[in-house]
């Protein structure tokens, strides 16, 4: 089939509106509301689209999570657009790009609406579909799932806090919300507070500013379950971070059930004091591992069934489960995207169609870098044996390449320090940390090493 999507690109009307509709369908309501809706269209400069966000934090987040998708959609709907620039602009807001194509460079004249108002309410809404019932269990997540169930059941729990960790898009937030729903189901008036660490931090800083940390803690007194998501965001923010964890300690001492998530284990939360870290480890640390094929397929089946009126054949589901291995969010996003495109242009969901719609995602998933890959290429490059690289030998001609390989593993893969250590002949995470620091130091002064790293990165990146 030559079902070229180009015809669709000759889109009339407001491209930004269309792109927003597609994004909403692809990422779901919650993500859309939190991250994508706040994006304002500013204008066009040459082949660049300018978009703005109200804060640095959001801008960084959108850059790292959605920039590539935004670019792909813009260039798909508006031929001639080659890149997307994201800027921070607190009080800018243009709801649509109706004036498009505004091919003049004054397009960043903007409409100013009221500046953002800080919301007083602590805690965010729980997402409807993030329930235990809709969480698909597999080998990689069953431990975390069971732990979450235990917390939700209440009763005499013998661990507190529950610390959930795993790579992005593997279901941490889903499990937290599920705990919230389940607790409320048992006790309608249970007070469940779920919020991002970032929000917790903002509220906490405000309390600090008003010298009012006591009443800040009071606000949590009546809470039954407190859940704080993505605490890696506050790690390393020294002065406030410490206070932040003290507050959490107080809550634990108070017998509140606490659930915390991060994209890495407490070990790997760099820049957190040792005693705080060990406090976190007193609870239960449950990791969510990357998915296997079987789980991915089961998740796709469940999601496809929940899409009314959408027919996805088993071969498409199998294809997605095999190809999109990065995380569940991308997997889900891919399915949503295929379904959204199909319904927008009235095309059946065939394998070919899925391939075309997902070309960029598939490419990104193909390019996935593994630690094995890095080890092989580094050994090759330095002409040392792979077995030596993984051995206990400390000879300098082996030790340096090994450090380089560890460094690259940390830089180029989402693996944690302990995971990397295990891959290097079962070394301790502190060894890996040391290697990373060492290479980071050296590369600033040693231009030969710098050149090696550069060449190696390119070799590995393909
Ligand atoms: P994280 O917080 O770990 O980054 P999320 O909890 O936001 O990830 O999950 C990303 C998306 O993937 C959500 O839409 C979630 O519902 C879905 N998801 C993740 N794991 C599962 C699972 N085991 N079963 C069903 N959906 C899942
Ligand atoms: Mg999350």
Would you spell out the secondary-structure blueprint of this structure?
Layout: H1 6-9, H2 15-36, E1 40-45, E2 48-53, H3 56-77, E3 83-88, H4 142-153, E4 162-166, H5 172-186, E5 192-196, H6 197-209, H7 213-218, E6 225-229, H8 238-253, E7 257-262, H9 274-282, E8 284-288, H10 293-305, H11 314-323, H12 328-345, H13 351-357, H14 359-366, H15 371-382, H16 386-390, H17 396-412, H18 417-423, H19 429-445, H20 447-461
Parallel strand pairs: 2-3, 4-7, 4-8, 5-6, 6-7
Antiparallel strand pairs: 1-2
Helix pairs in contact: 2-3, 2-12, 4-5, 10-11, 10-12, 15-17, 17-19, 18-19, 19-20
The chain binds adenosine-5'-diphosphate and magnesium ion (MG).
The site of magnesium ion has 4 residues, from helix 5.
